[in-house]
Amino acid sequence: MDWGIDPARVAEIGTIASSRRFSARDTEKFVLAITGGGSENADLPLWDMLQVLFALGALTAGPRMPARDAAIGCLLDESGILLRPLRQEKPVGAELAGASIEASATEVVLSYGAGKTRSFSWSRVRRALGLADFLFAAEADDRSEGGLAALRSALDAVFALAVFDEDGLKRAVQEPARFMRAWRRRHLPLLAFADLIRQREAFLNASGRRERQREFDPDDLVSLWSFALLHGETWSFARFAERFSALIREERSSVGRRDFMAPASMDSLMARQPSENPEEALIAWLDHQAVLGELEPEDIDEEDDDEPEEEDEDGVVRERVYAALMRLPADPKFLNKEERESVGRALALLPIAHEQPLTLARSRAVAPWENRLVEASRRVAGSNRGQVDQTPDPFDYPGIAQALGALGKRFDELLLIGVALEALEGPANAAVLAEGQKVLRRWRHDRASFRIDDAKLALIFARHGGALRTVAGALQRIVRQQRRFGESADLAAQAALDEARFTEVFSQRYQGRVKRP
Questions:
Q1: 166/202 same-domain check
Q2: Considering only CA atoms, which of 78, 76, 81 is closest in space to residue 155?
Q3: Which of 68, 128, 259, 508 could be 49's S-S partner, Cβ–Cβ 3.0 to 4.6 Å?
Q4: Contact 108, 56 (CB under 8 A)
Q5: What is the span of the domain harbouring residue 155?
Q6: Is residue 331 within 8 Å of 451, Cβ to Cβ?
């Protein structure tokens, strides 16, 4: 599976694998090294790469070619002119920076420090050079100088070592490791969701939905979460729903724009043939992944706040809406801590919060109950007495809608203040301006941080107007959907059904974790 990767990136990887004449097994390991799925530590292939380049540089250095330049020569020497003399029955040796290197027909051995030895088969050497080749060719973008700069920095560091050791290697590998993490974030958008995708596809298989439809209604999502719990998942329902929403956002944005599966996908590099079923390709590729490390959160760009975030045709607010919330100022205090957290939890469920008001209500209702169960089970397990009280907190769906409505009103008031200060565009008739001034006086009475002169406050509203409108627009739609849900459903009956359903899940989930007296 290509994880939404640009077909051009797939072609680049395939070109390297082909030019270096990798076997199918070597191609698989090479792809895993790039995607970070080859081991629990995604940086290990980079350690191998630097040690191989250091060893080859030492072995092929000469009076007119320092070791660093010789290493680069080995990287660029796809025909093997420099490496062929090393692959002889009679070993070839060299020493550099306190390390001993020996090459033979079967392997390259690097010895350093207090008895530390690394052995590299020639297949492993080729893969390491392939990874260096990948870095060498990786283009720069607006956030990175490119892989070549990272590779150059690493080579400068490793060949400048007075004594070759793991501490020096650790420092040298930092730049290429940082570049690879950034590359994966940009070009493998679904990689962070590997476990969730696997759970989703396994659930679809187990539930007999052979058409493999990936549209989930609110009840489907609860069923998927229950299924995942039985297969090792530990997330709460609220956290699971947030994660599922993030997966939907990624699939609809970057992956959707790339038609989800590129014409030549990663699995075809290993299988030597294209997959007829993209979903099966996805599962096959997932099965190659080892334990994935946490991907670093992507840096947030400083964006122009003058314009609100756009919406897709289906009304789904783009990913930056949460970043817009984070950009709202802490002084003056547009939102207090509780309000900011509450809005954040609602926005974390986009687009589900817009499309499935019941899922949002369930997430809000079940969270305090599940948190209480988790804490109670820990206390009981630690004291070895008693039993967890699994009685649900009441599911107050009307109350949840009212609380969200109050948050929406808070943003309406902020926008009204901005209009009254002539910092935001809006209906500037006398009644609106008067109401805005009235709201501003109340806010200044309630919040000390608003007790500054109008000119300074207007500048702050003008600066953050775009972010304010972005969050307000997303929240207002959430509020509208909750209101429509309340008008079309029997909330009391729905709450009773949901309490019973979650009670059944929790009784199974926590029973085995509680020590009986």
A1: no
A2: 76
A3: 128
A4: yes
A5: 44-172
A6: no
